[in-house]
Design goal:
- The chain is mainly alpha-helical.
- It has a single domain, classed as Serine Threonine Protein Phosphatase 5, Tetratricopeptide repeat (Alpha Horseshoe), CATH 1.25.40.90.
- Helices cover 71% and strands 4% of the residues.
- It has six helices and two strands; from the N terminus they run ααααββαα.
- A two-stranded antiparallel sheet has the order 1-2.
- α1 (2-8) runs antiparallel to α2.
- The model has no long low-confidence stretch (mean pLDDT 92).
- Pfam families: ENTH (PF01417).
- This is ENTH domain-containing protein.
């Protein structure tokens, strides 16, 4: 799946690609099939690794958004009730 390729591309200068991949994954978890949720859970190791993502442009921490988004996705995946709530919100 292309999403996983973008997330596994942990080349720091590609932080935008990784962040957009996480945003897409979050959307798929909320709006996609149950298979998207299962697939995301199976790739938990990749998501956890992104919690250590670092990239600085000068003094600006560009990796912070990636770390925060990966944390949000991991927290959502660990709570079935939250996924259910997010899916209901997305349907409205």
């Amino acid at each position: 799946m292309i999403v996983w390729e973008s997330l596994e591309n942990q080349r720091p200068a590609a932080w935008r690609i990784v962040f957009k991949g996480l945003t897409l994954l979050e959307h798929l978890i909320k709006n996609g099939s149950e298979r998207c949720v299962d697939d995301a859970r199976n790739h938990g190791h990749t998501l956890r690794a992104l919690g250590q993502f670092n990239y600085y442009e000068g003094t600006i921490d560009r990796g912070q958004g990636v770390r925060e988004k990966s944390k949000q996705v991991i927290e959502m995946l660990s709570d079935d009730d939250r996924i259910r709530e997010e899916r209901q919100k997305a349907r409205k």
